Amino acid sequence: MHIQDALADWSARSGPLYARLSAALTAAIERGDIPPGTVLPPERSLAKRLAIGRSTVMHAYARLREAGVLETRQGSGSWVTGGHRNGNAEAPRDSLPVAALRNPAALVDLATAALPAHRRLRDAVAALGVADPDTAAALDTPGYHPAGLPALRAALADRLTAQGLPTAADQVLVTTGDQQGLSLLAGHALPDREPAIVEAPTSPGILDVLHGLSVPLRGAPPVTAGGDELPALVDRIRPGLVYLVPTLSPLGRVLGAGDRKRLATALAERDTLVVDDVSQAGLVFEQVPPPLAAYAESDNLLTVGSLSKLHWGGLRLGWVRGPAPLVAALARAKARADLGTPVLDQVLATRLLGVEDEVRAERVAELRDRLAHAGATLTALLPEFRWTPPEGGLSLWLQLPAGTATAFSEVATRFGVAVVPGGVLSPRGLSDDHVRIVYARPPEVFDEGVHRLAAAWARYRHSGDDQPVLL
């Protein structure tokens, strides 16, 4: 919800316009609609939203600062005093579908038009072998959990805590896949189409989200490169969102502990929301590293994850970890979209978290074997291609000996094999000398795919130019 809703009919008050705005902001803060630590929109941004002059907002903010209600720091924005800056520039609002988010234990729900699960559904669940007291308790509810099933939120919080990032259940939002989490965060962080920064190459999912919002997009060198370019780029561009994959980006790298701490500390000092995507962390060959937020205490460092990569692509379950006020705001936005992620999926996910260490051990052992097989196949059939063994994950980042990946991938398609050209994983089409291929296929499937890829490369290489070849 936008901050305008907290201000209501502020302009109908008496007095100068800046005084009316200041009074409305003060009232919203006193009501708790704008909690302590909330970052208010920049002067220019709020002026645009309210269709007033920037000077009006400037004078209103100045009055709040004089009253000790607002704190402003150069480069960090203005936020409500009495709490840590939390990056939440939007005020919460309750509506009927999400009324339980405010205080579910104290609420008698006479608003949700839904029934508990029927006996036949309970029988079907029991037949699947997932019937237990936790499942029964979930089936006894109307089934609407906008922020996520409480048991799953608690389990995810425990998992993050064990990984080195102390987390409470109210700091976790369950989403329908990590893609929804990214969409919610981008919509929250970029209300006025502020610029965003992503690594290049990066996840295609975040590019889809940001292109859909039509925001200015800038690529940054991979954080695994060990340089300090990113903080300087943030200072220069002043983005609303920075998206990073320090754990198994397309390059297959895992940022070391020292570099993580240095990066997290630097970004925690910036006034931008930083999203650390750990969706593939469970597939790291060695120990799973803590998220960036574990290395610096700052509410602008957020973590997004998924259960789909480790357990099953069809298990469309993701999560966002951040400060509780921001998670509550995102839950309200999610409720407006879908009222909550399917509950039975969450029941299953809660059980899977209890055996995740076992699942991870089996997955990693299998991936190591398939990587060794893939390496031998690539060496035999595509010896000219260059690649570095990844530190986990499902894919390889192959460098072409010549030409462009975009043209080569089209030829490969005609030979019956699909690969991802590196250019589509960058905001500006960079890395088009690489392709991404999945090695985590059964050996016979991978071998057939590489045979076809080798045939496609022979045809492309001998075509004499960089245009797709019609067969």
From TrEMBL:
Stored InterPro entries: Aminotransferase_I/II_large (IPR004839), HTH_trans_reg/aminotransferase (IPR051446), PyrdxlP-dep_Trfase (IPR015424), PyrdxlP-dep_Trfase_major (IPR015421), PyrdxlP-dep_Trfase_small (IPR015422), Tscrpt_reg_HTH_GntR (IPR000524), WH-like_DNA-bd_sf (IPR036388), WH_DNA-bd_sf (IPR036390)
Family under the similarity heading: In the C-terminal section; belongs to the class-I pyridoxal-phosphate-dependent aminotransferase family.
Pfam family name, one: Aminotran_1_2
Keywords: Antibiotic biosynthesis, DNA-binding, Pyridoxal phosphate, Transcription, Transcription regulation
PANTHER family to which the protein is assigned, alphabetical: HTH-TYPE TRANSCRIPTIONAL REGULATORY PROTEIN GABR (PTHR46577)
Keyword Nuclease among record annotations: no
Lineage top rank: taxon: Bacteria
Chain ranges of the HTH gntR-type domain: 15-83
MF annotations from Gene Ontology: DNA binding
Protein name: DNA-binding transcriptional MocR family regulator
SMART domains: HTH_GNTR
